[in-house]
Specification:
The complex is a heterodimer of chains A (about 140) and B (about 170). By secondary structure, chain A is an alpha/beta fold. Chain A has one domain: Rossmann fold (3-Layer(aba) Sandwich), CATH 3.40.50. Chain A is about 45% helix and about 15% strand. Chain A contains six helices and five strands. In chain A, helix 2 links the parallel strand 3 and strand 4. The longest helix of chain A is centred in the last third of the chain and has 29 residues. The C terminus of chain A is likely disordered. Chain B contains six helices and five strands. A three-stranded antiparallel β-sheet of chain B has the order 2-3-5. A two-stranded antiparallel ribbon of chain B has the order 1-4. Chain B has a domain of about 110 residues: Alpha-Beta Plaits (2-Layer Sandwich), CATH 3.30.70.3270. Chain B is about 30% helix and about 15% strand. By secondary structure, chain B is of the alpha+beta class. The chains are: A alpha/beta (about 140), B alpha+beta (about 170). At the A-B interface, helix 3, helix 4, strand 5 and helix 6 of A face loops of B. Bound molecules: iron/sulfur cluster (2 copies). The site of one iron/sulfur cluster has 13 residues of chain B, from helix 3.
Chain lengths: ~140, ~170
């Protein structure tokens, strides 16, 4: 894993987020990396999977532990709207009801280009500020 | 449970093991340096992954040669959709040779699972799954695609025309 990448905590109980984790292995220079057990060291989180009671409690706990900008990416149809299963649930609670979602990524599974675009859109401003900081340090030296 | 490793003359010396491991490393290094096209890793942001011909992306409503919608509002796609995300409002057409046509056709992208059952159900090839992937959006973005989005979005260049038109289809008995 490289330097200067955004670390995103991934929470899931379904199939599309493991697929994303797998496809990260075969790509160089993506703008984010995934962490599976340390939300306190991550600046955002990817949520996927149908939200049952345990999942709802755990993503709220993980969201409180995040540091920095606290981005939330709702990844895939299950977490956004329940998808096919959502029709049969009487008390459907989606991720938009309990967390402030930064980007919705529809699709089953969402394309890898979609999450790359979403993350790099958000980090462009950040890269600008880093570049300015570099200029400042250079002037000071 | 415990694992007992038998010592033989090779495992006493650590150098053969190291050389064997380095051999695998250098074999892969030379293989990847000489034939770079066969490498599994992509140089991702510059080199894009090519989707296959059966990739199921955003929906496309095809049009006839005169530019009107090919869909006859038969509701087969809405019935077959497992996520129940297609809404069609049908109306009667002035032309007696055209049965019905949709005045409103909406697909809720947030509920669609991109299974392609609508494409399979359609009897007149009016809906297809296109090659574009779904773009991410913020809360409150327009995720319900209507006719102008599905059939006449700018990337399609005025709509995708199917090969057969209505008269040819009736003549051919399709
Ligand atoms: S792809 Fe599947 S879920 Fe989406 S509109 Fe078609 S039938 Fe419904
Ligand atoms: S898209 Fe095809 S299946 Fe759906 S209503 Fe139109 S003609 Fe019928």
């Amino acid at each position: 894993m490289g330097w200067g990448k955004i670390r995103l905590f991934s929470y899931t109980n379904n199939c599309c987020v493991p697929q994303l984790e797998r496809s990260l292995l075969f790509k160089n220079e993506t703008c984010f990396e995934l962490s599976f057990n340390s939300p306190e060291k991550s600046s955002g989180m990817i949520v996927g999977g149908f939200l049952n009671q345990v999942a709802r409690r755990e993503i709220i706990e993980a969201f409180e532990l995040l540091k920095g900008p606290k981005w939330v990416f709702a990844y895939g149809t299950c977490v956004i709207s329940g998808g096919v299963l959502g029709q049969f649930s009487d008390s459907l609670i989606t991720v938009g009801d309990i967390l402030p979602v930064t980007r919705f990524l529809p699709g089953c599974p969402p394309s890898f280009d979609a999450i790359q675009t979403a993350v790099s859109d958000l980090t462009e401003g950040r890269r600008e500020s880093v570049r300015e900081k570099g200029v400042l340090y250079a002037l000071r030296d | 449970m415990s694992i007992v490793k038998k010592e033989n003359s090779l495992s006493k010396w650590y150098l053969p093991g190291i050389l064997k491991g380095l051999g695998i490393t250098f074999r892969n290094l030379i293989k990847n340096l000489t034939s770079r096209d066969e490498m599994l890793t992509l140089n991702y942001p510059e080199e894009k992954y090519e989707y296959g011909p059966r990739f199921k992306g955003n929906h496309v409503l095809t049009v006839k040669k005169d530019g009107s919608l090919r869909c006859t509002a038969c509701m087969l796609c809405a019935t077959n959709c497992p996520a129940d995300c297609i809404t069609i409002v049908a109306a009667e057409h002035d032309d007696p040779s055209v049965e019905k046509y949709p005045i409103n056709y909406e697909i809720d992208i947030l509920r669609c699972v991109f299974c392609g059952f609508c494409e399979e159900a359609c009897p007149v090839d009016a809906i297809r799954m296109g090659p574009e992937w779904q773009v991410p959006g913020v809360n409150g973005a327009s995720f319900i695609n209507n006719i102008s989005e599905l059939a006449y979005r700018p990337s399609l260049g005025g709509g995708i025309k199917t090969v057969l038109d209505d008269e040819e289809r009736i003549k051919g008995g399709i």
